[in-house]
Amino acid sequence: MSVLIGLVWAEADGGVIGADGGMPWHVPEDLAHFKAVTIGAPVIMGRRTWESLPERFRPLSDRRNIVVTRNEDWAAAGAESARSLDSAIALVDDSSTDWAWVIGGGALFAESIERATRLEVTELDVSAAGDTFAPSRAGWHPTAADPSVGWHVSSRGIRYRFVTCERGNRENTDG
Length: 175
Prior knowledge:
alpha/beta; 32% strand; globular
């Protein structure tokens, strides 16, 4: 069985997805969406993404946590380590799941986007300084948006929307 690869991230204006090892915003609705998308499926992340998760949330519950790291000695309770993206995907291909979700960081997104079938992006209408950026969505087109027009407003006052993208020839939302 060959697993389908999806990427899931939240991005601010200019494609910012992170700063100093974390997210420079807090949007509870995005965290709930992230959980709804990934629950029950394997999640693949880089070591720094693993370390950026608050300790009380590691490992992410009800998901197989696979951490890509070049450090052969790395180990953490509740996580499986893989030395490369290929190794992580091979671990997932051995299971009976349809989807695996790459959840960060920036280098792993860039490496995996060509293998992906779907992107689940939370677009945030906020400017934030950052040092980690989303990969280009060139060649992808939106297939769903929530809301279909306009924005939701989070409990923290940040405007956001959820966009699902798939590969195709339609105009993309690259910004």
